Amino acid sequence: MPTLxxxxxxxxxxxxxxxxLAGSLLVVMMDMTILxxxxxxxxxxLAPSASEQLWIVDVYSLILAGLLIxxxxxxxxxGRKRLLLTGFTLFGVVSVLVLFADSPAFVIALRALxxxxxxxxxxxxxxMIRSIFQDPKERAKALAVWSIVSGLGAIIGPVVGGAxxxxxxxxxxxxxxxxxxxxAVVAGAVLLPEARxxxxxxxxxxxxxxxxxGMSLLVWGIKQLAKEGWGDVxxxxxxxxxxxxxxxxxxxxxxxxxPLLDVRLFRSxxxxxxxxxxxxxxxxxxxxxxxxxxxxxxVAGYSPLVAGLALLPMAIGSFVFAPFAPALAxxxxxxxxLAAGLAAAGVGLLLLxxxxxxxxxxxxxxxxxxxxxxxxxxxxxxxIIMGSTxxxxxGNAAAIEEAMYDLGSVLGIAVLGSxxxxxxxxxxxxxxxxxxxxxxxxxxxxxxxxxxxxxxxRQTGFDDLATAxxxxxxxxLGQTSLVGGSVMLAAAAVTYLLIPKxxxxxxxxxx
Length: 511
Prior knowledge:
This protein is mainly α. The protein folds into three domains: 1-199, Growth Hormone, Chain: A (Up-down Bundle), CATH 1.20.1250; 202-259; 265-511, Growth Hormone, Chain: A, CATH 1.20.1250.20. Helix content is 80%, strand content 0%. It is built from 21 helices and no strands. The protein has helices spanning 11-33, 35-46, 50-78, 80-97, 104-132, 136-165, 172-175, 177-191, 205-228, 233-255, 269-299, 304-310, 312-321, 325-332, 334-355, 361-387, 394-428, 430-435, 440-448, 450-460, 463-498. Helix 6 runs antiparallel to helix 12 and helix 6 (136-165) runs antiparallel to helix 13. The longest helix is centred in the C-terminal third of the chain and has 36 residues, at 463-498.
């Protein structure tokens, strides 16, 4: 049987390969959010400390961020198919090992290994699409599917988690990966072609260490700033150290003829525009998704499962827009479609601000759908990034794009989350309640979060506190949406200006 290669694949084989790659991405994206639903039961069973709980949630994204660049470089050298199947195998084995987890440390170790496996899978799926779909129009359609699945995975993670926990224990949040992995490994071995850089450069051990340490420290530092506050010295020290390490990494890559990551890709204006779109979108959308999910569960009183289902208008907006985005890009221009999609998401967030308080779920449907349309437009952003990149550099481009998604989400939750918390405290005015007799320590708990305020109100009978806290949260949600919407509109303008009017997605890798 002849070896399967991208140039010899039939149309049916290419689309079958895309199904495997999309399924790969779906599992990794689901795993980022599914544990949120299982955490309360896990805490009850294993009794982790507050610090251990944070590590259980955060270590996945820390390891994933740190290994994106080295793993994509490894795939370019060792073979992208081989790396993908290895990542899937590790993902499946680690997911089964959860049955033996009897301590928080064990779960943290498992989540770290899942992050390493995810770093093998995520950039590889994107770079293989670049290799398999050599026709720009076909590739744009394939990237639209990839974009939909990426957004859908993060949204349905809590839905799937909530449904599983209705019947099974918290272990099911890990074990759900196993059947997906088994199918993907078998199908991937048969349907995927091997692809690698034909002239891979020598491995740069120093750059590898710099990228792992720099990216991991950066993500950790930003997350700590969000948790500890913007005055936390240790968090700022981590961010500054990360900036120094990443600067060293970039300078080293620029000084070598065969860098671990070709940062010269940023010289392309369309490439920069695509990465800005990815970063800004995740910055605005990640935080807003978190805040809206909190409103659905805490204010509207929906169960986790129903709250997850209530977010589906966002997925529907993406489903409606993403399939048509590539065809529109070829017809009226990629820069117009990408900028319009980002602007639609910005308008959705501004509409959320305009709704004011009180808020009802039906009012959320249109804003969520518009934000989903913005997610759908990222398919064009991916097509711009990949179309601006030579095939042999696909792994580099994929690593950069995935890093932008990861950093954008972390930054959004840290920055916009902090803005929302500050606005909540400002609108709540806890001083009036402490002056009316509310004990100081309970006032501090109420000032910290809406959940804390509602619990304090329940314990003390301060019904006005619950009303004021709910109104303060809705006001902070609206004003934070104003900030996020402004960021999206600014990103739309910047991408439109960066991408030349003459840019043609069909001019493969020549920009």
